[in-house]
């Protein structure tokens, strides 16, 4: 008996930039949906992650709904095992974990042809494209950046379908209402945050010694430069015994004014506020008290996604994505 579940998923909007007049939706339809195209076959769309591994990324499912191209991007870690927790009784102090390989999976009853191999799917991203507008439902491992890189490879390096000297970039487009608010109301305070990382110092090995060289770390150059230039704090010679990956340190800069500022001062703040739109960690406080963050400036929304036996119902998702795009996006931009 099939089990149907409906969950809300976040849709992120991206606009295609720097295609020199090309149309992403048309390019994808021509390369993936045309039966005479080399890339109509899924096996030809595999992008291997590295030269030493069999892991790959590909658009597995490709179809259309009205004017929208619809795709399913997946990543596969070849030969990966899948751990399964078996919850067998309420009194157990520990639940058993069993690991399955793909060869442990039973064959489907309707498999009428020999299956060359099976692989576990690590993650799935769904996307819709109308002209140069893209709606994306990201996953844990696959993001808009992954899709951008894959499409650049598929249409550029592989299919040679992009115009000469062009790049495919998926660019954030601001929420129209928030953008209008930001442009019409002066900014009062801008807070910018950045994680503080570290780099390894090259260890000095003594030829006559068999003792392993000790590795020291130093704070990343960009953080050192900011602290030195702005506050006169010189950490260039500070050596650390461990890296800062787990230190949870952040550098936070705040640009603001007390009570009132001049016309030039306001221009500086507004210019910085505008340039921060492509950063991921900032808060802009407008003169009327409204707070604008990276998350609410970027255009996104929610749609209901139906799954049947834990598999997304693609036909229903296509309709939902198309309706969201045609309702929320200004295709004249």
**Total helical elements:** 7
Number of DSSP strands? 17
Helix content: 10-25%
The helix/strand order is EHEEEEEEEHEHEEEHEHEEHEEH
The overall pLDDT average reads 79
Uncertain runs are none
Radius of gyration: 25 Å
Counting helices, strands and paired strands, the structural category is alpha+beta
- Terminal CA distance: 47 Å
Count up the domains. Answer: 3
Shape: globular
Largest sheet: 9 strands, antiparallel
Strand content of the residues, in percent?
Answer: 25-35%
Give a summary of the structure in a few sentences.
The chain has 333 residues and is of the alpha+beta class. The protein is built from seven helices and 17 strands.
Describe this structure in words.
The chain is an alpha+beta fold and 333 residues long. The chain has three domains: 4-78 and 115-173 and 300-328, no CATH class; 174-196 and 249-298, no CATH class; 197-244, no CATH class. The chain is built from seven helices and 17 strands. Strands 1, 2, 3, 4, 7, 8, 9, 16 and 17 form a nine-stranded antiparallel β-sheet that branches. Strands 13-10-14-15 form a four-stranded antiparallel β-sheet.
